[in-house]
Design a protein that fits this description.
GO cellular component, one term: mitochondrial inner membrane
Shape: elongated
Helix content: 55-70%
Low-confidence stretches: 1-17
Enzyme class: hydrolase
Mean pLDDT: 83
Radius of gyration: 30 Å
Strand order of the largest sheet: 1-3-2
Order of helices and strands: HHHHEEEHHHHH
Largest sheet: 3 strands, mixed
Distance between the termini: 108 Å
Strand content: 5-15%
Family: Belongs to the peptidase M76 family.
Structural class: mainly alpha
Number of domains: 2
Number of strands: 3
GO biological process, one term: mitochondrial proton-transporting ATP synthase complex assembly
InterPro entries: Peptidase_M76_ATP23 (IPR019165)
């Protein structure tokens, strides 16, 4: 019977079992780098849209970043190209209350708002509150009308009639109540559509004033000043 062989069994060469050294790795070409970057961007976008691969907190943060970036981009575009926005900015400057960039900020809001004005901080654009660029344009003009009223007329925001007048003017002059916006909200009245929209939206805003005790009080304040404030189109010559 043959004896077992004394020679060691053959082994696979070290070149095929060891990882490649740094010298063996070929640098990616410019095209490959672009493709890799594009793939990574696509993966991030997909994760932001679907939430796949992200914790709930990370997903929320990614969405907020995307919303803010979009808001800031459209804000810059509208400041440069929107006739209504530029008109209001020019008139605010003439009135002695110029609107600087740091007074026109994008930020998150609750789902019921698209913007707001504070006489202490300026205008907030709700980065998660716009369904279109036109919606954002109307919101910017709306809040600029409030800023103009505060500057020129000295609005007392705790006085419901003062507040009502500015809300009537802002809704009437900003484009908030144009036909397409009303159709989107589900209102189809053909007679005095604009006036009814302005009145309805003014009441909703005044009702949210901490000094307003009830919806009835808001309606009373709006009705008391409606005609005079609706017909006051300053600084516009007519409804925008």
């Amino acid at each position: 019977m043959a004896e077992p062989s004394s020679t060691s069994p053959s082994v696979t060469s070290s070149e095929s079992t060891l990882p490649p050294t740094t010298a063996d790795v070929q640098p990616m070409s410019e095209r490959e780098l672009k493709e890799q970057k594009a793939f990574n961007n696509w993966r991030k976008t997909l994760s932001r849209i679907t939430g796949v691969g992200l914790t709930p907190e990370e997903f929320k943060e990614e969405v907020a970043k995307a919303d803010r970036k979009q808001c800031e981009l459209q804000r810059e575009q509208l400041v440069k190209t929107s006739p209504g926005v530029r008109f209001m900015m020019n008139n605010l400057a003439k009135a002695g209350c110029p609107l600087t960039k740091n007074m026109l900020e994008c930020g998150p809001c609750d789902a019921t708002k698209s913007g707001g004005f504070s006489n202490h901080h300026g205008i907030l654009l709700c980065q998660n509150g716009f369904f279109s660029k036109k919606h954002m344009e109307h919101t910017m003009i709306h809040e600029m009308v409030h800023m103009y009223d505060h500057c020129v007329f000295g609005v007392d925001w705790h006085n419901l009639r003062h507040h009502a007048c500015s809300e009537i003017r802002a809704a009437a002059l900003s484009g908030d109540c144009n036909w397409t916006r009303e159709v989107r909200r589900g209102f189809y009245t053909f007679t005095k559509q604009h006036q009814e929209c302005v009145r309805r939206r003014a009441v909703l805003s005044v009702e949210a004033n901490p000094k307003c005790p009830s919806r009835a009080a808001a309606e009373k304040a709006v009705n008391a000043v409606f005609d005079s404030c609706y017909n006051d189109t300053r600084p516009f010559d007519e409804f925008y």
